[in-house]
Amino acid sequence: MSYSYRSTRSSARGSGRRPGGQQNRNRSRGGGGNRQYIDPSRFIKVANPVETQSYEPLNAFTDFALPQLLQDNLAKLGYKLPSPIQDQAIPVALTGKDVIGIASTGTGKTAAFGLPVLARLLADRKSAALIVAPTRELAQQIEAELRKIARGSGLTGAVLIGGTSMGPQLRDLRAKPRVVIGTPGRIKDHLERGTLNLQNFTMVVLDEVDRMLDMGFVNDVTDILSQFGGERQSFFFSATMDERVRKLITVFTENPVTIALKASSASENVHQDVVKFQSHNEKLDKLHDILIRDEVSKAIIFDETQRSVERLSNELVARGFQAESLHGGKSQGQRQRALAKFKKSEVRVLVATDVAARGIDIVDITHVVNYSVPKVYDDYIHRIGRAGRAGKVGYALTFVGK
Ligand code: AMP
Q: Most-buried pick from 62, 189, 311, 384 (CB within 10 A)?
């Protein structure tokens, strides 16, 4: 099999391992918001890289009621077997139900919503689909994938993203595209100008909903969804399902079917361990020792508050490390510059708060250091998912007091 997947059934870590009665034990530990007790044993795990497990799908692509053209294209693309999210989402989506998919990038989720969307576009000439993605890059990636799968179908599309001129977008929109893919800001722009009308659109996909919310798109997304006319089929994909995501989704779907791949799938590629410390000085020394190790080529360090992030970053610079900080107290320009330096490896160390680090997608981060324990386990999974990307094994080290 050319495409190997982690099994959803052979999870090494069950979801219910949190010891009962201990959840709130250290709620009073500052930082505001609800703090969940996380047993430190959950921060220790040997990586179980993707290649070592494979998923046995229940279906072959030919079992799905997909048009022959799509079947042929899948075969040409060398997609032999459905990925887990495809295996589970496609049959549900083909019945017309709303689908909530909990899956991250790299799981084949684009085709999981793309195939049923394209099948319906081909079957019903009056149908049209809107696909909303948080970033320009993702919107373009989705377009490229759908273009491959729909080759020869004659379906027309438009990509509406910021930072590019309006001319070609307006031209594509005038041709009444059946698939519109874009980022929230530019889609809203077109809606306000009257150059895009969603009244007759029959399908909507929100991809990476959690990231969209992290990036502050909640109002734009809500406005966009409220512009649909009659009945529609909705697809929502998110790497994590937290309260905010749930709230947004439930307003806009009726009786959705949720397909949850293991929320922690990214972490399978990450060696996880704890670092014990007694005092502030010992903690900083231990961090120093970690950062000078040869194998630490690029590290992101999480701390709780803007102030603690700034302080730690300064302390590291004072110790001779090339470090940058990323938190909500910085201007957008400062944040972008810090990120660019980290991305280009001009600095090897980035100290960040959870919120600022959410959208980061840098493939060569080798180490995630949790200088403070995250508030909730979902944040932990989010943090450690910054390492171990693109099939590489990463490392996550979490500091816990002795
Ligand atoms: P995605 O998670 O949608 O970004 O997909 C990740 C990559 O896997 C893309 O390069 C797809 O072209 C590829 N892919 C998706 N589904 C399959 C499949 N069933 N078999 C082989 N490759 C796939």
A: 384
Give the position, in ligand 1's atom list, of the atom nearest the Cα of 141: 4
Q: Tell whether pTM > 0.70.
A: no
H or E element that contains 396: strand 394-401
Which alpha helices (H) appear in 240-353, and where do they start and end? Answer: 243-252, 280-291, 306-318, 332-343
The number of the ligand 1 atom at minimal distance from the alpha carbon of 2 is 21
Q: Which of 58, 64, 80, 110 to mutate to test the pocket of ligand 1 (most atoms within 8 A of CB)?
A: 110
Let me know whether 124 and 253 are in one domain: yes
Phi and psi for 129 in degrees, rounded to 5?
-130, 140
Q: Which tens digit of pLDDT belongs to each residue from 164-216?
A: 889 999 999 999 999 999 999 999 999 999 999 999 999 999 999 988 988 88
Which atom in ligand 1 lies closest to the alpha carbon of residue 81?
19
CATH number assigned to the domain comprising residue 322: 3.40.50.300
Protein residue with its CA nearest to atom 21 in ligand 1: 79
Say whether both 254 and 284 belong to one domain. no
Domain boundary among 260, 281, 301: 260
Which residue from 218, 247, 250, 245 is spatially nearest to 234, judged by alpha carbons?
250
